[in-house]
Amino acid sequence: MTHSVVHLLGVPFAIIAGTGAGVFALLSWGIFRDSPFGTAIALLSVGMVALTIYHTMLLVLEPESLALHVLRSAANTILAIFVGLLILRHRQLRSGRSRGEGAWPD
């Protein structure tokens, strides 16, 4: 498989951009670990790492390999769990606020 120069320059760019995003996600998780969204941010960090590896492998390997299908499925599953956790947490916060549990003091 032949690659153009732009295609080959995309590999280090994908690695650098994905690594930066993953580091910022981990730093955010360190700050918000004890918050209601700490688990969701941790899953988002793992999802970002999986998507970075997937896109880097997509540039290097052929697009229809089994490893890429498995990695894409894992990344999509992580993102689906992330969205589900956000929905559950939103409902918990909303029900707690309607009962007066999470309201700000006057």
TrEMBL record:
The chain crosses the membrane at residues 6-29, 41-60, 66-88. Keywords: Membrane, Transmembrane, Transmembrane helix. It comes from the Archaea. This is Uncharacterized protein. It comes from Natronobacterium haloterrestre. The lineage of its organism: Archaea, Methanobacteriati, Methanobacteriota, Stenosarchaea group, Halobacteria.
